[in-house]
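User: Can you predict the 3D structure for this chain?
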Amino acid sequence: MSRKQHTESSSRKFPSKSPTPDMPFHRGNYRWLMGGILLLLMGYSGLLIPNEFVDSKQFSISLYVAPWLILGGFLALIYAILKK
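Assistant: Here is the predicted structure, written as structure tokens:
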């Protein structure tokens, strides 16, 4: 083996044995996940509010607000999972 071949082979850089993989989620994804979970908890707890639905003109949180909070929570979770 010549001197030139010996110096070339010793100067090669080998990849590390255990490269660190990229994390699937980043900080923004976790924020969206936590926001979605919070919306779901608020929506489902809003459904537990008792209703005395007497008149169609009476506003009820469990009928009008809670389903939208639940829908928003699921959409936030889907966005958090699919966001790159």
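The helical segments are 3-10, 27-47, 61-64, 66-82. Residues 27-47 form the longest helix (21 residues).
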